[in-house]
Design goal:
alpha+beta; five-stranded antiparallel beta sheet; 7 helices; 18% strand
């Protein structure tokens, strides 16, 4: 592995100092306000890797989010506002997520958006006590819609969105070589939309690759309500869907929590299983190419020839690496190399 730059070591020390704050005193900008305990062990282990440090995380959550006011003339981007991690370390400007997202995203928190409900664990579905009770609507801060379908809101209205978001984890690494095995472990664990977000390090020695560990395959969302704004700043939040629909969405989100937890366990296993040392899972590309080539040549010499003479008959074709052609790889915990 390349040596650790001193500037990376300083940035990592700053992040770790913030994370070392006692839990009762620690606070961040996420709705939870602290690191999710369900992945704290994983975060601590990743931060013990010499060339890596976590900068933000969310172990997964169910949320109900009320959009903010849509600014006139603003170009619609993505809903990155609702994707915030559960801890955001004090990483310098070149590696942080978009700080202007709150104000540049229509409907973001900076324009009056807010969470009506957030849970980082599966939610027990409330039971109606009376025939016309709507306990899930009440849990999510929604009132039953008293208006008829002819007066449903238009596209400019402020909507309420139900979401399940799987784990997202941002990891700053000292170099692309330090990033590669972590990224491979994430993709092999099922976080298939993972990637390297920042490549400023190619031109700036004080910037470092930022890995985003994420998957969209488990995510789900649905518009479930809207806001009626009255004079004097009064807001009435109404449901657009039935109580049965909300129950279905909640059951779906609870099931996806379990799938999300399994992928987190696979990521932990890919990085640390058996050796508890992420760097031991890495094999230098040049050494691996030479080992594969030597293995292929040895096997070639011992293959029988149907004619009984030395030659190429009966030989198998060598793969690209045995011929010395380099390919990307990651060596798994059981010692097998995975392409």
């Amino acid at each position: 592995m390349p040596p650790i730059p001193s500037s990376f070591a300083k940035k990592k020390a700053t992040v770790l100092a913030a994370l070392a704050t006692p839990e009762e005193s620690y606070s961040d900008l996420s709705p939870k306000g602290s690191i999710d305990t369900r992945i704290k062990g994983l975060i601590d282990r990743i931060n013990r890797i010499e060339g890596a440090v976590t900068t933000s995380s969310c172990a997964g959550r169910i949320s109900v989010f009320l959009e903010g006011r849509k600014a006139k003339g603003k170009h619609s981007n993505s809903i990155a506002e609702e994707e915030g991690g559960e801890h955001k370390g004090p990483v310098p400007d070149d590696n942080t997520e978009n700080k202007s997202g709150e104000n540049s995203v229509p409907g973001g928190k900076g324009l009056g958006g807010r969470w009506l409900f957030v849970s980082h664990d599966p939610v027990k579905i409330p039971i109606a006590q009376q025939p016309h009770d709507s306990p899930i609507s009440k849990l999510f801060g929604l009132a039953s819609n008293h208006r008829n379908t002819a007066s449903l809101p238009d596209s400019e209205a402020r909507f309420v969105k139900f979401q399940f978001e799987p784990m997202i984890l941002h990891i700053m690494t000292a170099s692309l070589r330090h990033a590669q095995p972590i990224l491979a472990a994430a993709i092999n664990a099922g976080f298939r939309e993972s990637g390297v977000q920042s490549l400023k390090n190619l031109d700036d020695p004080n910037a470092f690759p930022m890995i985003a560990v994420r998957t969209t395959g488990l995510a789900t969302s649905s518009l479930v309500g809207y806001v009626e704004e009255l004079q004097g700043g009064v807001e009435n939040i109404y449901s657009l869907v039935s109580e049965e629909y909300l129950q279905m969405m909640l059951k779906t989100a609870n099931a996806r929590f379990l799938a999300n937890e399994e992928r987190i366990r696979r990521l932990d296993s890919n990085l640390f299983s058996d050796k508890r040392d992420q760097q031991a899972a890495w094999e230098d590309p040049q050494l691996r190419k030479e080992r594969k080539r030597a293995k292929g040549l040895t096997e070639r010499q011992h293959l029988p020839d149907p004619s009984g003479q030395a030659g190429n008959s009966g030989q198998r074709d060598l793969d690209s690496e045995e011929l010395g052609i380099e390919t990307a790889f990651y060596q798994s915990d059981n010692g097998a190399a995975e392409e």
